[in-house]
Amino acid sequence: MKPLIHNILLKSVLIGAIASFASCSQRQTDKEIKADITVKAKSNLNFAGVNYTVNKGVVTLTGKCPSEYAREEIEEMIKSIHIAKSFIDSIQIAPVTITADQPLKQAVDSILMNYAAVDARVSNDTVTLMGKASRQDFTALMQQMKKLSPLQIKNEVKVQ
After folding, report:
1. Does residue 57 contact residue 83 with C-beta atoms inside 8 Å?
2. Confidence band, pLDDT 50/70/90 cuts, at residue 10
3. What does the pLDDT read at residue 28?
4. CA–CA dist 125, 95 (Å, integer)
5. Are residues 78 and 12 in the same domain?
6. CATH code at 127?
7. Which run of H or E residues covers position 133?
8. Is residue 56 a contact partner of residue 31, using CB atoms and an 8 Å limit?
């Protein structure tokens, strides 16, 4: 009977380890996708009003684009990221005004490339963080955000 219990325990441990590895691997893939988007967004003004998060390989796009052509260009860029499974486009076609907050937005986006499920709005030198993060990631994220010295940081992140 002992060998049977030993085999069951061994299988349970292996299944847990594989699930944990798959989860870590997916988080790393999500970070890679977000980092790729961030790099491309820095050189593309069509992203000025667009926010993006990644969860399990799915990119979610929100915010504003100045035209349907700009939206299509962003969609094509997302499709070119081969490790991205799909995307959800919730972009609105509306005027986008590039304000004095743009450099802060780009700095915030550069930090957020390491936090796939976190997004931010930047307005009037105020950063509003949204999405999900582990407690450890959230602590590191807040430290990095404070270094940017925005007027205010509003937190809407769900810490898991």
Report:
1. yes
2. very low
3. 86
4. 20
5. yes
6. 3.30.1340.30
7. strand 126-133
8. no
* Closest residue by Cα to residue 155 from 142, 136, 140: 142
First vs last Cα of the chain: how many Å apart?
40
Closest by alpha carbon to 37, among 18, 19, 49, 51?
A: 51
Q: What DSSP line would sit under 81-101, residue for residue?
A: -TT--EEEEEEEE------TT
How many whole angstroms from its chain centre is CA 114? 7
Number of domains in the chain: 2
- As given in the structure block, the two tokens for residue 26 are 């997916």
Give the tens place of pLDDT for each residue, 66-119. Answer: 999 999 999 999 999 999 999 999 999 999 888 999 999 999 999 999 999 999
Pairing assessment for the beta strands 50-55 and 58-65 based on DSSP bridges = antiparallel
The whole domain housing 46 covers: 1-97
Give the span between the Cα atoms of 78 and 72, in whole angstroms.
10
- Say what the pTM is: 0.77
Percent of the chain with pLDDT over 90: 74
The residue from 82, 97, 112 where one domain ends is 97
**Cα–Cα distance measured from residue 101 to residue 109, given in angstroms and rounded to the nearest whole number:** 12
Asked if 102 and 48 count as a contact pair (C-beta separation under 8 A), the reply is: yes
